[in-house]
Fold Glutamate 5-kinase.
Amino acid sequence: MVQTAEQPSESGQALRAVSGHAQVHHSVRESESLTFPTTEEETRAAVAQARTVVVKVGSSSLTNSTGHLDPDRLRKLVTALAQARLMGARLLLVSSGAIAAGFGPLGFDSRPADVASQQAAASVGQGLLMEHYESAFAAYGLQAGQILLTAEDTMRPTQYRNARRTLDRMLELGVVPIVNENDALASNEIRFGDNDRLSALVTNMVRADALVLLTDVDALYTVPPSQPGSRKIPFVSDVLEAMGQVSVGGSTSGLGTGGMVTKMDAARVAAISGIPSILTSAPNAGPALMGDPVGTAFAPVKQRGSSKRLWIRFASEPRGRLVVDGGAARAISGGRASLLAAGVLAVEGDFSANDPVWIDDEAGRHLAKGLSAFDAEEIPQLLGRKSGQVRRLLGKQYAHPLVHRDNLVLV
């Protein structure tokens, strides 16, 4: 894809009104020879030039007012995606719509409230959804393939690696993966609940270069667009700051489960992961992918981290916790410090070596997440001991950090 649009002149003024000038100069990415995007023009250009792009579309963008799947809306979306794909971009589509597409054919007047009916609707609707996607992409000579994920698939390292390997291979073969939560099996106890977060996690999973979030609102606004004084925000340089300065609401369509809150959170995950993103309406999908000034562009706020560290931070589910003293808490919070046994006061939970754990201070506040180097049952004998003491008493195989800095991320 190529950049085709000029930056709108009012973007700088809108940025100052919402998120100030919290822009930081970053070094050049050696592997890509690109500067870290900090301006609206650079951010939109990064999306337009992205080699791998994740696009997320919500239920309300694919269905009509009665809750049925709208084939015309779906075909228009596929047309925009196919054009980008045929120009060389590798595309993954995270698509909601299975439950919304299925409850109409099953005779429900609206989205069912009980889990069993939702799962039944999803089992019917997912097939309808994929039938339309496969037909629409085939019109452009493109093959689509279905991937259904559960929250467990992103939390557990083995499932995570399997999903990543499958998606990578599909992209290598030129297939457009259609990703959705496995609503037919997911329960309310452990699920994404919306595909916004799933899209951000998939973006990290495949190390995509950009994320495009499509909804029924054309951009982020200072307050919901229906309220007086609402102003469109074309660019956000620091989504962490912006999240505290705009008023957003939940889903109002009755067809989906998310809202602007979950989309802002997805943009936050992308920004912290070093990934630019665009938030706009589904009809603007093509212009957004081409770098045109539509919707809201979110700049990254950090350089890209390793796949392992991104998984630890955003997808892993801690199995226990290590409670640290004040000195260890300060060292951990300072960044790039390993957690040594001498600074650990207590261990809780039942976990094995390489399982994720919380690192908490004495007040119970989460400081970091990391991968434990030991089984939970091995750690009590190490608590409070310096490395030299551990080596003399237990042997050199125990004289290493409980959590190495390369396997630790601050939260």
Observations:
- The longest helix spans residues 115-138.
